[in-house]
């Protein structure tokens, strides 16, 4: 059995098709005609854009409108003015087009891959994909083509690029296995949208697996079985049938309110990363947006996005969600998320450095551009402003003061906005947890970011497998922190939500119900399952379980107790 990352749920049984990537190595040579070399690069770029547009057209025809937007990012990287200028300047300096392309895109790749945020690391795959496509065109090589595979194929490849995924005929693909990638990569997102089981980061899979091998891909557990026995095949065919039946049963909860078994109402909303994700949220029956990460606007730009550009993106989400609430997090950027035009200084410990609200408050005029855009968009729906990484009450007060300044400026311009727009904060640090009572007195809502809260509380990096046993929501210290945050928010009469991964964890959901969590913000595909889990518990049952759990002393004991009590 081979182990990897569970990137896309489901069971796939099929025959291995190992994809061999082309050799894109080259020997740098100085071009004799610089203008001709630029034209050669331009032709390669035009060919890449044309192919990508065809992929986008095909994906839209297959109903993958949101996923087609991911491929649109490739065109943006191919057309980026800063990258084009860098390539052409390098050619003027005597580089061949291949070397100029490699150096320009490698710089952006290294920038993204070294960021701590997994969503931004995923952009590195996009950059690498564009570079690969351009080099293949320049060198006259054919890229991996997954569009004409036979039925029941399991794709095995070192790295599944978004462009490869875009070519897949989902009807013929039983599963996907790669040597690289994680759950937040764009390829994983597309695989989940196509409902193809996928296990990523399987070490040496392209050499351990041969063409024609029979495989079982367990995308739920992140496991691959090579040449399975008849008993294993029978077992996994039965599991696949159960999963299909389970998915069908969940459809019963589409269009239903999110209530506990005894009728307590909860708000079930989606986490999104760009305006197009709002479509997927609606399709999966989300009751709003609990976290809209605004960083994509800044990451995809070569200079600071204008007020109108930001307003357009926020308005787009608001209109798509109609009257449903949309919580938009203001810029969460810092030393760990490099954006060249912001000229951020490298820091030894960026996670505890000049980031998020600290950066924004140090650049108030720039921050006010975003706040004005958010206010303008609030005229079109129920927008709420969320401030990230608040550790000090003074920070929140300064943000609220800037919001009031922006309201006056819009009044002078005669621009409409919601005068009662809500301003809340993410609770994602031990400091914010400890002063939750003070913050609640000045916030309109809380949203708990469990990913960072766990990391900061346990002093554990979630990407470090050696200390993975510490990075768990089941840790007693984390549970005590969650209990305090929710209780203080409820005392103040404000909505308390959660936008971290734990909000969709079926084991911890009854504990969150007992604590009094009012809003669950999860990934769009998790909406119906989370609604189902919530509907299985009464407050009394959740309280009884939580009373037992809060007396336990270790994460292992907590998890075991929750597993034993889980509803079947």
Can you walk me through this structure?
The chain is an alpha/beta fold and 568 residues long. Helices cover 48% and strands 14% of the residues. The protein has an eight-stranded mixed beta sheet with strand order 1-8-7-3-4-5-6-2. The protein has an eight-stranded parallel beta barrel with strand order 9-10-11-12-13-14-15-16, surrounded by six helices. α6 links the parallel β4 and β5. α3 packs across α4. The longest helix is centred in the N-terminal third of the chain and has 28 residues. The two termini are 27 Å apart.
Secondary structure layout:
Blueprint: E1 2-3, E2 5-8, E3 11-18, H1 34-61, H2 65-79, H3 81-92, H4 97-113, H5 118-139, E4 153-157, H6 162-167, E5 173-178, H7 186-194, E6 198-200, H8 205-208, E7 214-218, E8 223-226, H9 230-250, E9 267-272, H10 277-283, E10 289-293, H11 295-299, H12 307-321, E11 325-329, H13 357-362, H14 364-377, E12 382-387, H15 393-413, E13 422-427, H16 430-434, H17 436-440, E14 445-448, H18 450-458, H19 476-491, E15 495-498, H20 509-515, E16 519-522, H21 527-535, H22 539-549, H23 555-565
Parallel strand pairs: 3-4, 4-5, 5-6, 9-10, 9-16, 10-11, 11-12, 12-13, 13-14, 14-15, 15-16
Antiparallel strand pairs: 1-8, 2-6, 3-7, 7-8
Helix pairs in contact: 1-2, 1-5, 2-5, 3-4, 4-5, 12-14, 14-15, 20-22
Estimated radius of gyration:
25 Å
- How much of the sequence is in beta strands? 5-15%
Q: What's the β-strand tally?
A: 16
Class computed from helices, strands and strand pairing:
alpha/beta
Average pLDDT metric:
88
Number of helices: 23
Q: What's the story with the biggest beta sheet?
A: 8 strands, mixed
So what's the overall shape?
globular
Measured distance between first and last alpha carbons: 27 Å
Uncertain regions: pLDDT < 50 for 5+ in a row?
A: none
- State the share of residues found in helices, binned by percent: 40-55%
Q: Biggest sheet: strands side by side, in what order? A: 1-8-7-3-4-5-6-2
């Amino acid at each position: 059995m081979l182990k990897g990352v569970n990137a896309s749920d489901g069971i796939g049984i099929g025959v291995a098709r190992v994809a061999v990537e082309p050799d894109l190595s080259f020997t740098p040579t100085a071009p004799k005609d610089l203008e001709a070399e630029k034209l050669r690069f331009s032709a390669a770029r035009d060919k890449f854009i044309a192919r990508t547009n065809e992929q986008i057209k095909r994906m839209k025809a297959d109903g993958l409108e949101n996923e087609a937007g991911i491929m649109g990012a490739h065109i943006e990287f191919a057309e980026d003015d800063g990258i084009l200028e860098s390539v052409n300047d390098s050619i003027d300096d005597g580089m061949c087009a291949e070397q100029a392309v490699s150096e320009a895109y490698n710089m952006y790749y290294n920038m993204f891959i070294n960021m701590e945020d997994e969503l931004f690391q995923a952009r590195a795959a996009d950059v690498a994909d564009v570079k690969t496509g351009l080099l293949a065109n320049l060198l006259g090589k054919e890229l991996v083509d997954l569009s004409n595979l036979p039925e029941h194929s399991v794709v095995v490849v070192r790295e599944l690029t978004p462009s490869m995924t875009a070519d897949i005929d989902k009807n013929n693909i039983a599963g996907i296995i790669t040597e690289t990638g994680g759950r937040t990569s764009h390829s994983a997102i597309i695989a989940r949208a196509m409902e193809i089981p996928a296990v990523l980061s399987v070490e040496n899979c392209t050499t351990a697996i041969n063409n024609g091998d029979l495989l079982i891909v367990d995308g739920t557990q992140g496991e691959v079985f090579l040449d399975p026995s008849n008993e294993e095949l029978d077992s996994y065919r039965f599991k696949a049938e159960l999963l299909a039946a389970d998915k069908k049963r969940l459809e019963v909860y589409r269009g239903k309110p999110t209530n506990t078994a005894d009728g307590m109402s909860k708000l079930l909303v989606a986490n999104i990363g760009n305006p197009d994700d709002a479509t997927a949220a609606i399709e999966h029956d989300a009751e709003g947006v609990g976290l809209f990460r605004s960083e994509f606007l800044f990451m995809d730009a070569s200079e600071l996005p204008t007020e109108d550009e930001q307003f357009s993106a926020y308005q787009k989400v608001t209109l798509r969600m109609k009257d449903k609430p949309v919580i938009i997090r203001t810029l969460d950027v810092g030393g760990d998320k490099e954006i060249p035009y912001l000229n951020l200084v490298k820091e030894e410990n960026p996670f505890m450095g000049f980031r998020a609200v600290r950066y924004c408050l140090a650049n108030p005029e720039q921050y006010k551009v975003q706040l004005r855009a958010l206010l303008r968009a609030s005229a079109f729906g129920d927008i709420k402003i969320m401030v990230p990484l608040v550790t000090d009450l003074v920070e929140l007060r300064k943000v609220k003061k800037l919001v009031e300044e922006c309201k006056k400026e819009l009044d002078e311009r005669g621009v409409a906005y919601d005068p009662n727009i809500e301003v809340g904060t993410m609770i994602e640090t031990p400091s914010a947890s400890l002063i939750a009572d003070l913050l609640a007195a000045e916030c309109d809502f809380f949203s708990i970011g469990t990913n960072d809260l766990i990391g900061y509380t346990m002093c554990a990096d979630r990407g470090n497998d050696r200390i993975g046993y510490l990075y768990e929501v089941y840790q007693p210290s984390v549970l005590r922190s969650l209990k305090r945050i929710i209780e203080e928010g409820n005392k103040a009469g404000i909505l308390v939500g959660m936008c971290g991964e734990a909000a969709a964890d079926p084991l911890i959901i009854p504990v969150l119900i007992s604590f009094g969590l009012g809003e669950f913000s999860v990934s769009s595909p998790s909406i119906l399952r989370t609604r189902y889990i919530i509907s299985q518990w009464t407050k009394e049952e959740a309280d009884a379980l939580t009373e037992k759990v809060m007396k336990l002393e270790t994460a292992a004991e907590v998890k075991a107790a929750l597993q034993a009590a889980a509803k079947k």
